[in-house]
Amino acid sequence: MVDKLNKALPPVTISDKADRLEEAEMSASLRLKNALQAYGYYDATWKISKKLSSPKNYLLQFSISLAKPIIVRKVDLQKSGTGRNTPQIIHFFKVFPLKDGAVLNQIDYEEWKGKALEVLNRQGYAKAEYTRHEILIDKKEFWSDIYLWLNTGPRFRFGSITVHGAEHYPRWFVERYVSFKEGDWYAPAALAVTQSNLRNADRFSDISVHGELNAEKHNIVPVSINLKSMPAQHIKIGAGYSTDIGPNAALIYDNYNAFDEAQHVRVSILAAQLNRSTSILYKWPIGKNIGSEYVAQASYQNQTLTAYDSNEILASVGRQWSLRDDNSRNKTTTLEALVNFEQANYTVADEVNNSFYIYPSLQYTIQDFRNVLRPISGYSLTARAEGASKIWGSTANFVRFSARGSWNVRINRQWVIGTRAKVGAMWLNGPISVLPPNLRFFAGGQNSLPGYAFQSQGPVDSDGAVEGGRLLAVAGFNIQRFVSKNWAVVAFYDAGNAFNSFSNLHILQDVGIGFRWYSPVGPIRFDLAHPLVNPKTPAVRIAFSVGFSL
After folding, report:
1. What is the CATH number of the domain that holds 186?
2. Residue-wise pLDDT tens digits, 231-249
3. 526 and 384 assigned to the same domain
4. 112-115 — which CB contacts under 8 Å span 24+ positions?
5. Are residues 109 and 51 part of one domain?
6. Which end of the chain has less Cβ packing within 10 Å, N or C?
Protein backbone atom coordinates (compact mmCIF):
# COMPACT_ATOMS: atom_id res chain seq x y z
CA MET A 1 0.00 0.00 0.00
CA VAL A 2 2.88 2.39 0.73
CA ASP A 3 4.22 1.95 -2.82
CA LYS A 4 0.80 2.60 -4.31
CA LEU A 5 0.31 5.76 -2.28
CA ASN A 6 3.79 7.02 -3.13
CA LYS A 7 2.86 6.85 -6.81
CA ALA A 8 -0.35 8.78 -6.16
CA LEU A 9 1.39 11.28 -3.89
CA PRO A 10 5.10 11.66 -4.74
CA PRO A 11 7.31 13.84 -2.52
CA VAL A 12 7.13 17.55 -3.40
CA THR A 13 9.35 20.27 -1.94
CA ILE A 14 7.72 23.65 -1.30
CA SER A 15 8.95 27.08 -0.28
CA ASP A 16 8.73 28.34 3.31
CA LYS A 17 6.11 30.98 2.59
CA ALA A 18 3.15 30.43 4.90
CA ASP A 19 0.48 30.64 2.21
CA ARG A 20 2.34 28.18 -0.05
CA LEU A 21 2.81 25.76 2.84
CA GLU A 22 -0.88 25.81 3.74
CA GLU A 23 -1.90 25.46 0.10
CA ALA A 24 0.42 22.48 -0.41
CA GLU A 25 -0.86 20.81 2.74
CA MET A 26 -4.49 21.12 1.64
CA SER A 27 -3.74 19.91 -1.88
CA ALA A 28 -1.72 16.92 -0.70
CA SER A 29 -4.38 15.93 1.85
CA LEU A 30 -7.07 15.97 -0.85
CA ARG A 31 -4.98 13.82 -3.20
CA LEU A 32 -4.20 11.39 -0.40
CA LYS A 33 -7.87 11.12 0.53
CA ASN A 34 -8.84 10.35 -3.07
CA ALA A 35 -6.08 7.75 -3.38
CA LEU A 36 -7.06 5.99 -0.14
CA GLN A 37 -10.71 5.86 -1.17
CA ALA A 38 -9.76 4.47 -4.58
CA TYR A 39 -8.08 1.57 -2.75
CA GLY A 40 -11.12 1.03 -0.48
CA TYR A 41 -10.10 2.92 2.68
CA TYR A 42 -12.80 5.53 3.30
CA ASP A 43 -12.21 5.81 7.06
CA ALA A 44 -8.47 6.27 6.95
CA THR A 45 -6.96 9.05 9.05
CA TRP A 46 -3.53 10.63 9.03
CA LYS A 47 -1.27 13.03 10.79
CA ILE A 48 0.92 15.59 9.05
CA SER A 49 4.37 16.60 10.18
CA LYS A 50 6.52 19.33 8.61
CA LYS A 51 10.20 18.61 8.15
CA LEU A 52 12.76 21.19 7.10
CA SER A 53 14.49 19.53 4.13
CA SER A 54 16.76 22.50 3.36
CA PRO A 55 17.18 26.04 4.73
CA LYS A 56 14.29 27.28 2.58
CA ASN A 57 12.15 24.19 1.93
CA TYR A 58 9.78 21.96 3.88
CA LEU A 59 8.75 18.34 3.36
CA LEU A 60 5.29 17.24 4.48
CA GLN A 61 5.19 13.71 5.87
CA PHE A 62 1.96 11.74 6.36
CA SER A 63 1.52 9.05 9.02
CA ILE A 64 -1.53 7.06 7.96
CA SER A 65 -3.91 4.80 9.87
CA LEU A 66 -5.85 2.80 7.29
CA ALA A 67 -8.72 1.70 9.58
CA LYS A 68 -11.41 -0.68 8.32
CA PRO A 69 -11.68 -1.08 4.51
CA ILE A 70 -14.73 -1.39 2.26
CA ILE A 71 -15.33 -5.07 1.47
CA VAL A 72 -16.88 -6.35 -1.77
CA ARG A 73 -20.15 -8.04 -0.82
CA LYS A 74 -21.55 -8.80 -4.25
CA VAL A 75 -20.25 -8.88 -7.84
CA ASP A 76 -22.83 -8.90 -10.65
CA LEU A 77 -21.02 -9.45 -13.96
CA GLN A 78 -23.06 -9.85 -17.11
CA LYS A 79 -22.16 -10.01 -20.79
CA SER A 80 -24.32 -9.77 -23.87
CA GLY A 81 -23.97 -9.12 -27.59
CA THR A 82 -22.54 -11.16 -30.45
CA GLY A 83 -19.04 -11.26 -28.91
CA ARG A 84 -20.03 -12.38 -25.44
CA ASN A 85 -18.67 -15.92 -25.92
CA THR A 86 -15.34 -15.06 -27.54
CA PRO A 87 -12.43 -16.81 -25.76
CA GLN A 88 -10.86 -13.51 -24.73
CA ILE A 89 -14.01 -12.19 -23.07
CA ILE A 90 -14.68 -15.51 -21.34
CA HIS A 91 -11.12 -15.36 -19.99
CA PHE A 92 -11.50 -11.73 -18.90
CA PHE A 93 -14.63 -12.53 -16.91
CA LYS A 94 -12.87 -15.45 -15.22
CA VAL A 95 -10.01 -13.22 -14.04
CA PHE A 96 -12.09 -10.26 -12.87
CA PRO A 97 -9.86 -8.88 -10.07
CA LEU A 98 -12.54 -8.18 -7.45
CA LYS A 99 -14.12 -11.17 -5.72
CA ASP A 100 -16.64 -11.47 -2.90
CA GLY A 101 -14.90 -10.65 0.36
CA ALA A 102 -12.02 -8.71 -1.24
CA VAL A 103 -11.07 -5.14 -0.37
CA LEU A 104 -12.64 -2.72 -2.86
CA ASN A 105 -9.91 -1.66 -5.32
CA GLN A 106 -11.32 0.79 -7.82
CA ILE A 107 -7.99 1.11 -9.64
CA ASP A 108 -8.03 -2.58 -10.63
CA TYR A 109 -11.73 -2.23 -11.47
CA GLU A 110 -11.14 0.65 -13.90
CA GLU A 111 -8.10 -1.03 -15.50
CA TRP A 112 -10.12 -4.20 -16.13
CA LYS A 113 -12.93 -2.19 -17.72
CA GLY A 114 -10.54 -0.41 -20.07
CA LYS A 115 -8.67 -3.56 -21.11
CA ALA A 116 -11.88 -5.47 -21.86
CA LEU A 117 -13.08 -2.70 -24.19
CA GLU A 118 -9.64 -2.48 -25.78
CA VAL A 119 -9.67 -6.20 -26.60
CA LEU A 120 -13.15 -5.94 -28.13
CA ASN A 121 -12.27 -2.84 -30.17
CA ARG A 122 -9.27 -4.63 -31.69
CA GLN A 123 -11.55 -7.46 -32.80
CA GLY A 124 -14.14 -5.30 -34.54
CA TYR A 125 -16.61 -4.62 -31.73
CA ALA A 126 -16.42 -0.86 -32.15
CA LYS A 127 -19.66 -0.15 -30.28
CA ALA A 128 -18.92 -2.25 -27.22
CA GLU A 129 -20.12 -0.50 -24.07
CA TYR A 130 -21.13 -1.00 -20.46
CA THR A 131 -24.87 -0.72 -20.12
CA ARG A 132 -24.40 -0.64 -16.35
CA HIS A 133 -21.18 0.11 -14.51
CA GLU A 134 -21.95 0.95 -10.93
CA ILE A 135 -20.41 0.50 -7.50
CA LEU A 136 -22.82 0.86 -4.57
CA ILE A 137 -21.04 1.65 -1.30
CA ASP A 138 -22.30 1.68 2.28
CA LYS A 139 -19.65 3.61 4.18
CA LYS A 140 -21.21 2.91 7.56
CA GLU A 141 -21.50 -0.84 7.10
CA PHE A 142 -18.29 -1.10 5.05
CA TRP A 143 -19.66 -3.06 2.11
CA SER A 144 -19.94 -2.52 -1.63
CA ASP A 145 -21.87 -4.10 -4.49
CA ILE A 146 -20.49 -4.09 -8.03
CA TYR A 147 -22.72 -4.14 -11.11
CA LEU A 148 -20.87 -4.41 -14.41
CA TRP A 149 -22.87 -5.31 -17.51
CA LEU A 150 -20.97 -5.47 -20.82
CA ASN A 151 -22.67 -5.41 -24.21
CA THR A 152 -20.22 -6.20 -27.02
CA GLY A 153 -22.59 -4.97 -29.72
CA PRO A 154 -22.25 -6.19 -33.33
CA ARG A 155 -18.93 -6.98 -35.01
CA PHE A 156 -17.85 -4.65 -37.81
CA ARG A 157 -15.59 -4.98 -40.83
CA PHE A 158 -13.75 -2.37 -42.85
CA GLY A 159 -15.60 -1.35 -45.99
CA SER A 160 -14.58 0.78 -48.95
CA ILE A 161 -11.53 3.03 -48.52
CA THR A 162 -11.81 6.43 -50.19
CA VAL A 163 -8.83 8.79 -50.53
CA HIS A 164 -9.41 12.52 -51.01
CA GLY A 165 -6.62 14.95 -51.94
CA ALA A 166 -2.93 14.39 -52.75
CA GLU A 167 -3.88 14.08 -56.42
CA HIS A 168 -0.26 14.26 -57.60
CA TYR A 169 0.50 10.89 -56.04
CA PRO A 170 -0.70 7.61 -57.59
CA ARG A 171 -3.56 6.07 -55.60
CA TRP A 172 -1.75 2.73 -55.35
CA PHE A 173 1.14 4.49 -53.63
CA VAL A 174 -1.05 6.22 -51.04
CA GLU A 175 -2.80 2.93 -50.33
CA ARG A 176 0.57 1.38 -49.36
CA TYR A 177 0.39 3.35 -46.12
CA VAL A 178 -2.99 1.89 -45.16
CA SER A 179 -2.47 -0.76 -42.47
CA PHE A 180 -5.73 -2.63 -43.19
CA LYS A 181 -7.71 -3.79 -46.18
CA GLU A 182 -11.35 -4.02 -47.05
CA GLY A 183 -12.93 -6.96 -45.24
CA ASP A 184 -10.63 -6.88 -42.19
CA TRP A 185 -12.23 -6.61 -38.77
CA TYR A 186 -12.78 -2.95 -37.96
CA ALA A 187 -10.31 -1.60 -35.37
CA PRO A 188 -9.73 2.05 -34.36
CA ALA A 189 -6.08 1.16 -33.65
CA ALA A 190 -5.59 0.32 -37.35
CA LEU A 191 -6.88 3.78 -38.28
CA ALA A 192 -4.34 5.33 -35.90
CA VAL A 193 -1.48 3.27 -37.41
CA THR A 194 -2.49 4.38 -40.91
CA GLN A 195 -2.49 8.02 -39.84
CA SER A 196 0.96 7.56 -38.30
CA ASN A 197 2.25 5.89 -41.49
CA LEU A 198 1.04 8.79 -43.64
CA ARG A 199 2.55 11.34 -41.25
CA ASN A 200 5.93 9.56 -41.31
CA ALA A 201 5.95 9.43 -45.11
CA ASP A 202 7.15 13.09 -45.28
CA ARG A 203 4.84 13.63 -48.24
CA PHE A 204 1.48 14.64 -46.76
CA SER A 205 0.04 17.23 -44.37
CA ASP A 206 -3.43 17.84 -42.89
CA ILE A 207 -3.91 14.08 -42.56
CA SER A 208 -7.17 12.62 -41.29
CA VAL A 209 -8.26 8.98 -41.31
CA HIS A 210 -11.85 8.32 -40.24
CA GLY A 211 -14.06 5.29 -40.00
CA GLU A 212 -17.61 6.39 -40.79
CA LEU A 213 -19.43 4.36 -38.13
CA ASN A 214 -22.55 6.47 -38.60
CA ALA A 215 -22.62 5.42 -42.26
CA GLU A 216 -22.19 1.68 -41.65
CA LYS A 217 -24.48 -0.70 -43.48
CA HIS A 218 -24.79 -4.37 -42.61
CA ASN A 219 -21.90 -3.91 -40.14
CA ILE A 220 -19.59 -2.67 -42.94
CA VAL A 221 -17.82 0.62 -42.10
CA PRO A 222 -16.52 2.83 -44.93
CA VAL A 223 -13.25 4.70 -44.37
CA SER A 224 -12.39 8.19 -45.55
CA ILE A 225 -8.78 9.40 -45.85
CA ASN A 226 -8.23 13.12 -46.41
CA LEU A 227 -4.79 14.36 -47.39
CA LYS A 228 -2.99 17.48 -48.48
CA SER A 229 0.29 17.10 -50.36
CA MET A 230 3.45 18.73 -49.06
CA PRO A 231 5.82 20.27 -51.64
CA ALA A 232 7.55 17.35 -53.34
CA GLN A 233 10.96 19.04 -53.48
CA HIS A 234 12.94 20.01 -50.39
CA ILE A 235 16.36 21.52 -49.78
CA LYS A 236 17.87 21.11 -46.33
CA ILE A 237 20.97 22.86 -45.09
CA GLY A 238 22.42 21.98 -41.73
CA ALA A 239 25.51 22.13 -39.57
CA GLY A 240 26.42 20.16 -36.50
CA TYR A 241 28.98 18.17 -34.62
CA SER A 242 29.53 14.43 -34.32
CA THR A 243 32.19 12.87 -32.16
CA ASP A 244 32.81 10.27 -34.89
CA ILE A 245 33.48 12.66 -37.78
CA GLY A 246 33.88 16.08 -36.10
CA PRO A 247 32.27 19.41 -37.11
CA ASN A 248 30.17 19.03 -40.23
CA ALA A 249 27.86 20.74 -42.67
CA ALA A 250 25.35 19.09 -44.98
CA LEU A 251 23.30 20.02 -48.03
CA ILE A 252 20.47 17.66 -49.00
CA TYR A 253 18.08 17.86 -51.92
CA ASP A 254 15.01 15.59 -51.95
CA ASN A 255 12.39 15.04 -54.60
CA TYR A 256 9.71 12.71 -53.20
CA ASN A 257 7.56 12.57 -56.32
CA ALA A 258 9.83 12.38 -59.34
CA PHE A 259 7.92 11.96 -62.62
CA ASP A 260 4.68 12.10 -60.55
CA GLU A 261 5.25 8.42 -59.75
CA ALA A 262 6.23 8.78 -56.06
CA GLN A 263 9.84 8.00 -56.95
CA HIS A 264 12.35 9.41 -54.47
CA VAL A 265 15.57 11.13 -55.55
CA ARG A 266 18.03 12.34 -52.92
CA VAL A 267 21.29 14.21 -53.54
CA SER A 268 23.42 14.86 -50.48
CA ILE A 269 26.74 16.57 -49.80
CA LEU A 270 28.54 16.20 -46.47
CA ALA A 271 31.60 18.19 -45.46
CA ALA A 272 33.05 17.12 -42.13
CA GLN A 273 36.41 17.30 -40.42
CA LEU A 274 37.06 13.57 -40.90
CA ASN A 275 34.64 12.65 -43.68
CA ARG A 276 33.71 14.27 -46.99
CA SER A 277 31.13 12.66 -49.22
CA THR A 278 28.62 13.21 -51.97
CA SER A 279 25.91 10.76 -53.00
CA ILE A 280 22.80 10.27 -55.08
CA LEU A 281 20.03 7.82 -54.15
CA TYR A 282 17.10 6.75 -56.32
CA LYS A 283 14.17 4.69 -55.00
CA TRP A 284 11.35 3.45 -57.18
CA PRO A 285 8.49 2.07 -55.04
CA ILE A 286 6.69 -1.00 -56.35
CA GLY A 287 4.08 -3.34 -54.96
CA LYS A 288 1.56 -2.87 -52.19
CA ASN A 289 3.80 -2.81 -49.12
CA ILE A 290 5.87 -0.02 -47.58
CA GLY A 291 9.53 -0.81 -48.14
CA SER A 292 9.13 -2.66 -51.46
CA GLU A 293 11.18 -0.75 -54.05
CA TYR A 294 14.00 -0.73 -56.57
CA VAL A 295 17.16 0.96 -55.30
CA ALA A 296 20.05 2.60 -57.15
CA GLN A 297 22.75 4.68 -55.53
CA ALA A 298 26.22 6.09 -56.14
CA SER A 299 28.62 7.85 -53.81
CA TYR A 300 32.11 9.21 -53.37
CA GLN A 301 33.64 9.31 -49.88
CA ASN A 302 36.95 10.59 -48.51
CA GLN A 303 37.84 9.71 -44.92
CA THR A 304 40.82 10.70 -42.76
CA LEU A 305 40.33 8.71 -39.57
CA THR A 306 42.70 7.69 -36.79
CA ALA A 307 43.48 4.28 -38.30
CA TYR A 308 43.28 5.00 -42.04
CA ASP A 309 42.76 7.37 -44.96
CA SER A 310 40.59 6.28 -47.86
CA ASN A 311 38.91 7.38 -51.08
CA GLU A 312 35.99 5.21 -52.24
CA ILE A 313 33.65 5.30 -55.21
CA LEU A 314 30.68 3.00 -54.64
CA ALA A 315 27.69 2.22 -56.86
CA SER A 316 24.86 -0.19 -56.05
CA VAL A 317 21.71 -1.36 -57.77
CA GLY A 318 19.09 -3.83 -56.62
CA ARG A 319 15.74 -4.53 -55.04
CA GLN A 320 14.21 -4.34 -51.58
CA TRP A 321 11.21 -6.43 -50.46
CA SER A 322 8.91 -5.86 -47.53
CA LEU A 323 8.26 -9.13 -45.70
CA ARG A 324 5.28 -7.79 -43.71
CA ASP A 325 1.78 -7.22 -45.00
CA ASP A 326 0.32 -4.99 -42.27
CA ASN A 327 2.14 -1.84 -43.48
CA SER A 328 3.15 -0.49 -40.08
CA ARG A 329 6.13 1.86 -40.06
CA ASN A 330 6.95 0.97 -36.45
CA LYS A 331 7.14 -2.73 -37.33
CA THR A 332 9.19 -3.47 -40.44
CA THR A 333 10.84 -6.52 -41.95
CA THR A 334 12.76 -6.09 -45.20
CA LEU A 335 15.10 -8.05 -47.44
CA GLU A 336 17.49 -6.18 -49.71
CA ALA A 337 19.54 -7.66 -52.56
CA LEU A 338 22.17 -5.46 -54.23
CA VAL A 339 25.03 -5.70 -56.67
CA ASN A 340 27.83 -3.40 -55.52
CA PHE A 341 30.72 -1.90 -57.51
CA GLU A 342 33.56 -0.36 -55.49
CA GLN A 343 36.81 1.34 -56.49
CA ALA A 344 39.03 2.42 -53.57
CA ASN A 345 42.50 3.66 -52.79
CA TYR A 346 43.56 3.80 -49.17
CA THR A 347 46.36 4.04 -46.64
CA VAL A 348 46.16 1.76 -43.62
CA ALA A 349 49.08 1.25 -41.19
CA ASP A 350 51.29 3.31 -43.54
CA GLU A 351 50.62 0.87 -46.41
CA VAL A 352 49.17 2.34 -49.60
CA ASN A 353 46.88 0.14 -51.71
CA ASN A 354 44.03 0.26 -54.19
CA SER A 355 41.36 -2.27 -55.07
CA PHE A 356 38.32 -2.93 -57.21
CA TYR A 357 35.43 -5.17 -56.21
CA ILE A 358 32.14 -6.37 -57.64
CA TYR A 359 30.18 -8.09 -54.93
CA PRO A 360 26.54 -9.01 -54.38
CA SER A 361 25.05 -8.44 -50.93
CA LEU A 362 21.96 -9.67 -49.15
CA GLN A 363 20.66 -7.78 -46.11
CA TYR A 364 17.83 -8.72 -43.74
CA THR A 365 16.39 -6.09 -41.39
CA ILE A 366 13.70 -6.43 -38.75
CA GLN A 367 12.56 -3.62 -36.46
CA ASP A 368 9.75 -3.60 -33.92
CA PHE A 369 9.46 -0.53 -31.72
CA ARG A 370 6.27 0.83 -30.24
CA ASN A 371 7.49 4.26 -31.33
CA VAL A 372 10.63 4.77 -33.43
CA LEU A 373 10.91 8.33 -32.13
CA ARG A 374 11.01 6.92 -28.58
CA PRO A 375 12.88 3.61 -29.05
CA ILE A 376 12.63 2.59 -25.39
CA SER A 377 10.58 -0.54 -25.94
CA GLY A 378 11.36 -2.97 -28.75
CA TYR A 379 14.17 -4.43 -30.77
CA SER A 380 15.99 -4.22 -34.10
CA LEU A 381 18.32 -6.50 -36.03
CA THR A 382 20.25 -6.08 -39.27
CA ALA A 383 22.20 -8.99 -40.77
CA ARG A 384 24.22 -8.73 -43.99
CA ALA A 385 26.09 -11.26 -46.12
CA GLU A 386 28.28 -10.37 -49.11
CA GLY A 387 31.07 -11.87 -51.15
CA ALA A 388 33.35 -11.31 -54.14
CA SER A 389 35.34 -13.44 -56.57
CA LYS A 390 38.30 -12.82 -58.85
CA ILE A 391 36.23 -14.47 -61.58
CA TRP A 392 34.04 -11.33 -61.62
CA GLY A 393 37.06 -9.04 -61.85
CA SER A 394 37.49 -8.37 -58.13
CA THR A 395 40.90 -7.90 -56.51
CA ALA A 396 40.45 -10.90 -54.16
CA ASN A 397 38.01 -13.59 -53.08
CA PHE A 398 36.11 -13.01 -49.85
CA VAL A 399 32.89 -13.90 -48.02
CA ARG A 400 31.79 -11.53 -45.29
CA PHE A 401 29.01 -11.61 -42.68
CA SER A 402 28.02 -8.87 -40.23
CA ALA A 403 25.12 -8.22 -37.88
CA ARG A 404 24.08 -5.55 -35.42
CA GLY A 405 21.12 -5.33 -33.12
CA SER A 406 19.59 -3.71 -30.06
CA TRP A 407 16.91 -4.61 -27.54
CA ASN A 408 15.23 -2.27 -25.04
CA VAL A 409 12.53 -2.91 -22.48
CA ARG A 410 10.74 -0.44 -20.25
CA ILE A 411 10.53 -1.99 -16.79
CA ASN A 412 8.23 0.69 -15.41
CA ARG A 413 7.57 4.38 -15.87
CA GLN A 414 11.03 5.39 -14.65
CA TRP A 415 13.40 2.60 -15.72
CA VAL A 416 14.52 1.24 -19.11
CA ILE A 417 17.21 -1.39 -19.68
CA GLY A 418 18.82 -2.14 -23.01
CA THR A 419 21.52 -4.10 -24.77
CA ARG A 420 23.23 -3.81 -28.12
CA ALA A 421 25.75 -5.90 -30.04
CA LYS A 422 27.79 -6.00 -33.25
CA VAL A 423 29.40 -9.12 -34.66
CA GLY A 424 31.23 -9.89 -37.86
CA ALA A 425 33.29 -12.59 -39.57
CA MET A 426 34.94 -13.02 -42.95
CA TRP A 427 36.87 -15.52 -45.03
CA LEU A 428 39.51 -13.84 -47.17
CA ASN A 429 41.86 -15.43 -49.71
CA GLY A 430 44.95 -13.28 -49.19
CA PRO A 431 46.29 -10.63 -46.80
CA ILE A 432 43.88 -8.14 -45.29
CA SER A 433 45.68 -5.33 -47.11
CA VAL A 434 43.77 -6.24 -50.29
CA LEU A 435 40.50 -5.10 -48.68
CA PRO A 436 39.46 -1.43 -48.46
CA PRO A 437 38.81 -0.21 -44.87
CA ASN A 438 35.01 -0.30 -45.19
CA LEU A 439 35.16 -4.09 -45.71
CA ARG A 440 37.49 -4.75 -42.77
CA PHE A 441 36.35 -4.81 -39.15
CA PHE A 442 37.27 -1.99 -36.78
CA ALA A 443 35.95 -1.12 -33.31
CA GLY A 444 35.45 2.25 -31.64
CA GLY A 445 32.94 5.06 -31.94
CA GLN A 446 29.59 6.00 -30.51
CA ASN A 447 27.72 2.89 -31.69
CA SER A 448 30.57 0.50 -30.93
CA LEU A 449 32.98 1.42 -28.10
CA PRO A 450 32.28 5.10 -27.35
CA GLY A 451 35.28 5.33 -25.04
CA TYR A 452 37.58 4.99 -28.08
CA ALA A 453 37.91 7.02 -31.28
CA PHE A 454 35.77 6.08 -34.28
CA GLN A 455 37.12 3.02 -36.18
CA SER A 456 40.41 3.24 -34.25
CA GLN A 457 40.68 -0.23 -32.67
CA GLY A 458 41.54 -3.68 -34.01
CA PRO A 459 44.48 -5.98 -34.82
CA VAL A 460 47.85 -4.30 -35.35
CA ASP A 461 50.71 -4.93 -37.74
CA SER A 462 54.35 -5.60 -36.80
CA ASP A 463 54.88 -1.89 -36.12
CA GLY A 464 51.88 -1.66 -33.78
CA ALA A 465 49.64 0.24 -36.24
CA VAL A 466 45.97 -0.74 -36.37
CA GLU A 467 45.11 -2.44 -39.67
CA GLY A 468 41.65 -3.90 -39.00
CA GLY A 469 40.54 -7.47 -38.52
CA ARG A 470 38.64 -10.44 -39.91
CA LEU A 471 36.38 -10.84 -36.86
CA LEU A 472 34.34 -8.46 -34.69
CA ALA A 473 32.51 -8.85 -31.40
CA VAL A 474 31.25 -5.84 -29.43
CA ALA A 475 28.39 -5.76 -26.91
CA GLY A 476 27.02 -3.23 -24.45
CA PHE A 477 24.49 -2.80 -21.68
CA ASN A 478 22.73 0.37 -20.54
CA ILE A 479 20.16 1.42 -18.00
CA GLN A 480 18.06 4.60 -18.22
CA ARG A 481 16.27 6.48 -15.48
CA PHE A 482 13.60 8.94 -16.62
CA VAL A 483 13.60 12.20 -14.67
CA SER A 484 10.69 13.65 -16.65
CA LYS A 485 8.48 12.56 -19.53
CA ASN A 486 11.11 13.17 -22.23
CA TRP A 487 14.40 13.35 -20.31
CA ALA A 488 16.44 10.45 -18.98
CA VAL A 489 19.87 9.85 -17.51
CA VAL A 490 21.76 6.76 -18.66
CA ALA A 491 24.67 4.63 -17.48
CA PHE A 492 26.37 2.17 -19.85
CA TYR A 493 29.11 -0.42 -20.20
CA ASP A 494 30.63 -1.80 -23.43
CA ALA A 495 33.19 -4.50 -24.20
CA GLY A 496 34.71 -6.12 -27.27
CA ASN A 497 37.06 -5.48 -30.19
CA ALA A 498 37.96 -6.41 -33.74
CA PHE A 499 40.44 -9.33 -34.04
CA ASN A 500 41.82 -12.01 -36.34
CA SER A 501 41.42 -15.09 -34.13
CA PHE A 502 40.02 -15.85 -30.70
CA SER A 503 43.50 -16.68 -29.46
CA ASN A 504 44.62 -13.07 -29.90
CA LEU A 505 41.37 -11.34 -28.90
CA HIS A 506 42.19 -8.24 -26.84
CA ILE A 507 38.97 -7.15 -25.11
CA LEU A 508 38.54 -3.41 -24.66
CA GLN A 509 36.04 -1.97 -22.17
CA ASP A 510 34.47 1.40 -21.43
CA VAL A 511 31.91 2.87 -19.04
CA GLY A 512 29.98 6.09 -19.16
CA ILE A 513 27.05 8.26 -18.22
CA GLY A 514 24.87 10.48 -20.33
CA PHE A 515 21.54 12.08 -21.07
CA ARG A 516 18.68 11.33 -23.47
CA TRP A 517 16.13 13.82 -24.73
CA TYR A 518 13.31 12.14 -26.64
CA SER A 519 12.52 15.06 -28.90
CA PRO A 520 9.89 15.32 -31.68
CA VAL A 521 12.60 14.41 -34.24
CA GLY A 522 13.93 11.42 -32.31
CA PRO A 523 16.29 10.75 -29.41
CA ILE A 524 19.12 13.23 -28.82
CA ARG A 525 22.04 11.56 -27.06
CA PHE A 526 24.88 13.13 -25.09
CA ASP A 527 27.31 10.73 -23.42
CA LEU A 528 30.59 10.87 -21.55
CA ALA A 529 32.59 7.64 -22.00
CA HIS A 530 35.79 6.51 -20.28
CA PRO A 531 38.01 3.68 -21.64
CA LEU A 532 38.92 1.08 -19.00
CA VAL A 533 41.57 -0.74 -21.07
CA ASN A 534 44.47 1.02 -22.81
CA PRO A 535 43.17 4.51 -22.00
CA LYS A 536 44.49 7.22 -24.30
CA THR A 537 44.03 10.95 -24.49
CA PRO A 538 41.37 12.10 -23.98
CA ALA A 539 40.53 10.07 -20.87
CA VAL A 540 36.86 11.01 -21.31
CA ARG A 541 35.29 11.12 -24.76
CA ILE A 542 32.10 12.97 -25.64
CA ALA A 543 29.56 11.15 -27.81
CA PHE A 544 26.67 13.13 -29.32
CA SER A 545 24.01 12.24 -31.87
CA VAL A 546 20.49 13.09 -33.02
CA GLY A 547 17.98 10.48 -34.16
CA PHE A 548 17.55 6.71 -33.96
CA SER A 549 20.70 4.57 -34.15
CA LEU A 550 21.88 1.16 -32.97
Report:
1. 3.10.20.310
2. 999 898 987 777 788 888 8
3. yes
4. 113/148
5. no
6. N
